[in-house]
Amino acid sequence: MSDTDVLEKLADLKDKLVNAPEEDKETMYQWEKLIRKAFLVKNLYEHDAVKIIFQYFQAKVESINKALQEQTADELATPQGVVKRVRWEALREAYGSFTQILSRAEGTIKVINKNVDENL
To answer: For residues 62 and 81, what is the distance between their CA atoms, to the nearest angstrom?
Structure first.
């Protein structure tokens, strides 16, 4: 399935919903916005530099998760240990946010494509 296939199906759905309630039209417009954004992210991920950054961030998240699991109760009992943990959690959140944006794009495309098919 190509990007244009899904967009063509959305256009067909728009035609079908000409006389539909506004709520249905709004849902379809939201799907269109989401799918266009997902296509942009998917196309961005296909760039080699972005793949390298994505893999780097994934490795960082895994490393931080391991460090958090290995942090002892004694370390957490100190102010420095707490600060260290908070810093790791903030970094994990930042790296994780980026990787989630990229990894969710394909799923978004599949879900919206399925929804469009069900409503055509």
So the answer is: 19
pLDDT digits (tens, 9 = 90+) for 41-72: 989 988 999 999 999 999 999 999 999 999 99
Distance CA 117, CA 120 (A): 5
Global confidence as pTM: 0.66
* Contacts of residue 71, Cβ cutoff 8 Å, sequence gap at least 6: 81, 84, 85
CA-closest candidate to residue 3, choices 98, 102, 106, 103 = 106
- In the chain, where the domains are located: 3-119
Contact between residue 50 and residue 44 where contact means Cβ atoms under 8 Å apart: yes
CB–CB of 45/54 below 8 Å? yes
34 Cβ contact partners less than 8 Å away, ≥ 6 residues apart: 108, 112
3 state DSSP class of 33: helix
Using CB atoms within 10 A of its CB, is residue 95 exposed (0-12), middle (13-18) or buried (19+)?
A: buried
How far CA 7 is from CA of 30, 38, 57, 84, 102, in Å, comes to: 13, 12, 31, 47, 20
Residue type, 13: L
